[in-house]
Amino acid sequence: xxxxxxxxxxxxxxxxxxxxxxxxxxxxxxxxxxxxxxxxxxxxxxxxxxxxxxxxxxxxxxxxxxxxxxxxxxxxxxxxxxxxxxxxxxxxxxxxxxxxxxxxxxxxxxxxxxxxxxxxxxxxxxxxxxxxxxxxxxxxxxxxxxxxxxxxxxxxxxxxxxxxxxxxxxxxxxxxxxxxxxxxxxxxxxxxxxxxxxxxxxxxxxxxxxxxxxxxxxxxxxxxxxxxxxxxxxxxxxxxxxxxxxxxxxxxxxxxxxxxxxxxxxxxxxxxxxxxxxxxxxxxxxxxxxxxxxxxxxxxxxxxxxxxxxxxxxxxxxxxxxxxxxxxxxxxxxxxxxxxxxxxxxxxxxxxxxxxxxxxxxxxxxxxxxxxxxxxxxxxxxxxxxxxxxxxxxxxxxxxxxxxxxxxxxxxxxxxxxxxxxxxxxxxxxxxxxxxxxxxxxxxxxxxxxxxxxxxxxxxxxxxxxxxxxxxxxxxxxxxxxxxxxxxxxxxxxxxxxxxxxxxxxxxxxxxxxxxxxxxxxxxxxxxxxxxxxxxxxxxxxxxxxxxxxxxxxxxxxxxxxxxxxxxxxxxxxxxxxxxxxxxxxxxxxxxxxxxxxxxxxxxxxxxxxxxxxxxxxxxxx
Length: 622
Ligand code: GLN
Fold this sequence. Notes:
This protein is an alpha+beta fold. It contains 19 helices and 23 strands. Strand 12, helix 13 (374-386) and strand 13 form a beta-alpha-beta unit. Helix 1 packs antiparallel against helix 11, helix 2 packs across helix 3 (132-146) and helix 2 crosses helix 9 (243-256). The structure holds glutamine.
């Protein structure tokens, strides 16, 4: 099939305006072009009003999980939903009366027979909810709860699935009421076996009305996409039905959605689907897309001829068969390292840094990526088990994890509990208060001992470093004050030279939370921190470094005319500020000082570069 077929100007689609059409739109266009010429099949005529359908009508719509709508042809032409409603009303029945009551009334076995078969199972239940008998039984269950309000309830649910208010085609409804004797026979048979209870005519009318609801191919695509998206309508964002009910619904669509063509369908196309005699088909590929097609000419099974062809072509072209999936669980770990050469942005005192250098393997960091399911988490747990000895501090980073399945979260919780009992402290990062991933994991790790959660990886590494320093006895309270001689920038200067620089500086004090330096301002002084803590941050809030007494900041002023970052006082701060021009004047008179300071500055920058390179190296290794 040629994906580049140009569209005649007569074909209206929302997307024809793009010069650069996405390939999927082009593909749907080419399907439209190729299959619109197929006139085989016939419009349904057993409901007289359906005979009026225009056999030329042909619409295709595809809705993605992120709510993008592709459409072509008569995707906005309304037609009656007919049996496509069965899938959604089954979902509603499950939601309203629960699995057990539904199962007591209706089976889930394919019947191998036509949609209007009157045969029941050996225990006198409809074979499944996708054939008329089962669908009438579903309407009956809803009627048992809602009585005269049953249809309104159904219409409201269908509307939620479609993301707009749907309405009924009264003429089609009336036409089926007059001619629907076969369905009436089925309903009375079900009444005889107490599958349908109460007022049979009222139940039947509910069913006939539900079949006469008007939809477009676009509506069907949104409805299918809602099933594909675990029950959340991707266009409106509304959770229409629970994920559990979605799985039940897609199951019967898979085994029985295409009547007595269901086996062939799942073999050839492999996408859960449901068709109706109005000419509609919905197909929902979990976590990928929802498709809706409309073309009134039906084959001998009652399935839309062109609709089938679109589904077959789409599945074949993009390899969408639901059982033909592949995934490499190993891609879920993008980095696995200890803190050798890696540090948080808190600058450490020399003896602390020495402890961290010696015990870098005490902290293991595993950065995870992508949606995590059972198999991915199993892989992570084996990776943890296979490489003893356990680091006492295990940091699992979830910042790039958009989703975790319930099974994945459970497996993770069990593994962290085992590690907790072995004395490992697990630290989880990427924990936003309201994210679904955080909630799923929190629910499964409530009992885990020693567990810590952080939003930022850097904060978590800093906390882990503190633990390592503490465990190895190196934890000293942050020094109260510092003498200028301890400043790395002033190393190798004589006592007289240092005293001279101190004399040229002004003492400054800041309150906790005060901004000391603002990014973008002119850089005209250097600071020597003597008491308290400061953080260097980008205007975005990202922390570049935290500094304590004995460390300098603003020293880049020697090289750069403008401040490149903010500096904030984390506590009450005392420091000396040395104006740059005073310093430069002094250096002119004492060039040996300039030389030493520049050498010290180069050494400081070299260290930062080495750390930055180690991080680049680490990330490119995965
Ligand atoms: N209303 C139609 C009937 O019951 C629905 C059948 C169908 O779409 N397959 O006959």
